[in-house]
Amino acid sequence: MNKIIIHKPGYIQDGKLDRQCGRIIIYDGGIIISAGTSADHNYLLRAHASRYRINKDEVISNATRLYYRREDYGLAISGVRKIDDEDYERHSQEYRQLIENKPRKHI
User: Fold this and answer.
1) 37 class by beta-carbon count within 10 Å (0-12 exposed, 13-18 middle, 19+ buried)
2) So what's the pLDDT on residue 38?
3) In whole angstroms, what separates CA 16 from the centre of its chain?
4) Tens digits of per-residue pLDDT, 19-48?
5) Mean pLDDT of the chain
6) 96: which strand partners?
7) Alpha-carbon distance 63 to 65, whole Å?
8) Contact between residue 20 and residue 70 where contact means Cβ atoms under 8 Å apart
9) What SS3 string covers the chain?
Protein backbone atom coordinates (compact mmCIF):
# COMPACT_ATOMS: atom_id res chain seq x y z
CA MET A 1 0.00 0.00 0.00
CA ASN A 2 1.48 3.35 -1.05
CA LYS A 3 1.02 6.23 1.28
CA ILE A 4 -0.17 9.58 0.05
CA ILE A 5 2.65 12.13 0.14
CA ILE A 6 1.71 15.80 0.22
CA HIS A 7 4.22 18.62 -0.05
CA LYS A 8 3.42 21.36 2.47
CA PRO A 9 6.11 24.08 2.47
CA GLY A 10 6.64 25.55 5.93
CA TYR A 11 4.31 23.05 7.62
CA ILE A 12 7.05 21.32 9.62
CA GLN A 13 9.84 23.25 11.31
CA ASP A 14 12.87 22.35 13.38
CA GLY A 15 12.31 22.88 17.08
CA LYS A 16 8.70 21.74 16.68
CA LEU A 17 9.40 18.11 15.79
CA ASP A 18 7.62 15.40 17.74
CA ARG A 19 7.47 11.60 17.62
CA GLN A 20 5.44 11.72 14.39
CA CYS A 21 8.19 13.64 12.59
CA GLY A 22 11.52 12.77 11.06
CA ARG A 23 14.15 13.94 8.61
CA ILE A 24 14.95 12.96 5.03
CA ILE A 25 17.96 13.69 2.87
CA ILE A 26 18.10 12.94 -0.85
CA TYR A 27 21.21 13.17 -2.99
CA ASP A 28 22.11 11.68 -6.36
CA GLY A 29 19.38 9.03 -6.32
CA GLY A 30 20.08 7.93 -2.75
CA ILE A 31 17.93 8.57 0.31
CA ILE A 32 18.25 8.36 4.09
CA ILE A 33 15.19 8.68 6.30
CA SER A 34 15.49 9.04 10.06
CA ALA A 35 13.06 7.14 12.24
CA GLY A 36 11.94 9.92 14.57
CA THR A 37 13.71 13.05 15.68
CA SER A 38 17.01 11.57 16.84
CA ALA A 39 19.38 12.32 13.97
CA ASP A 40 19.83 15.86 12.67
CA HIS A 41 20.28 16.62 8.98
CA ASN A 42 24.05 17.14 9.33
CA TYR A 43 24.45 13.63 10.73
CA LEU A 44 22.35 12.19 7.90
CA LEU A 45 24.33 14.13 5.28
CA ARG A 46 27.63 12.78 6.59
CA ALA A 47 26.21 9.25 6.83
CA HIS A 48 25.00 9.46 3.23
CA ALA A 49 28.43 10.60 2.01
CA SER A 50 30.10 7.79 3.91
CA ARG A 51 27.63 5.10 2.78
CA TYR A 52 27.96 5.96 -0.90
CA ARG A 53 31.62 7.09 -0.73
CA ILE A 54 30.81 10.54 -2.03
CA ASN A 55 32.63 13.77 -1.18
CA LYS A 56 31.12 14.96 2.12
CA ASP A 57 31.27 18.65 1.20
CA GLU A 58 29.47 17.97 -2.09
CA VAL A 59 26.66 16.15 -0.28
CA ILE A 60 26.36 18.84 2.42
CA SER A 61 26.19 21.58 -0.22
CA ASN A 62 23.81 19.93 -2.68
CA ALA A 63 21.55 17.41 -0.94
CA THR A 64 17.84 18.07 -0.54
CA ARG A 65 16.81 18.23 3.13
CA LEU A 66 13.23 17.53 4.12
CA TYR A 67 11.11 16.99 7.20
CA TYR A 68 8.21 14.55 7.27
CA ARG A 69 5.24 14.13 9.56
CA ARG A 70 3.08 11.01 9.69
CA GLU A 71 -0.54 12.02 9.20
CA ASP A 72 -3.75 9.97 8.97
CA TYR A 73 -3.68 10.17 5.16
CA GLY A 74 0.04 9.40 4.78
CA LEU A 75 2.98 11.80 4.92
CA ALA A 76 3.33 15.56 4.91
CA ILE A 77 6.70 16.71 3.53
CA SER A 78 8.34 20.13 4.09
CA GLY A 79 11.69 21.44 2.94
CA VAL A 80 14.18 22.67 5.50
CA ARG A 81 15.08 25.64 3.28
CA LYS A 82 13.23 27.35 0.46
CA ILE A 83 15.67 25.82 -2.02
CA ASP A 84 14.71 22.35 -0.71
CA ASP A 85 11.02 23.04 -1.32
CA GLU A 86 11.83 24.26 -4.83
CA ASP A 87 13.95 21.18 -5.51
CA TYR A 88 11.20 18.89 -4.21
CA GLU A 89 8.69 20.55 -6.55
CA ARG A 90 11.00 20.06 -9.55
CA HIS A 91 11.65 16.40 -8.73
CA SER A 92 8.46 15.48 -6.86
CA GLN A 93 7.69 12.32 -8.82
CA GLU A 94 11.23 10.94 -8.43
CA TYR A 95 11.42 11.88 -4.73
CA ARG A 96 8.00 10.42 -3.97
CA GLN A 97 9.09 7.16 -5.54
CA LEU A 98 12.29 7.10 -3.46
CA ILE A 99 10.30 7.73 -0.26
CA GLU A 100 7.63 5.16 -1.11
CA ASN A 101 10.24 2.50 -1.89
CA LYS A 102 12.04 2.95 1.44
CA PRO A 103 11.24 0.16 3.95
CA ARG A 104 8.25 0.98 6.15
CA LYS A 105 10.20 0.70 9.39
CA HIS A 106 11.50 4.19 8.65
CA ILE A 107 8.23 6.02 8.04
Assistant:
1) middle
2) 65
3) 16
4) 889 999 999 988 988 877 667 888 889 988
5) 87
6) none
7) 6
8) yes
9) CCCEEEECCCCCCCCCCCCCEEEEEEECCEEEECCCCCCCHHHHHHHHHHHHCCCHHHHHHHCEEEEEEEECCEEEEEECCHHHHHHHHHCHHHHHHHHHCCCCCCC
Q: How far apart are CA 70 and CA 16, in angstroms?
A: 14
Q: Provide the residue ranges of all domains of the chain, joining segments of one domain with +.
A: 4-100
Tell me, what's the pLDDT at 18?
A: 84
* pTM listed for this prediction: 0.86
Q: What is the pLDDT of residue 51?
A: 87
Residue 7 has pLDDT above 60, yes or no: yes
Q: Which of 17, 24, 58, 28 is nearest to 41 (CA)?
A: 24
Q: Tell me if 9 sits within 8 A of 78, measured CB to CB.
A: yes
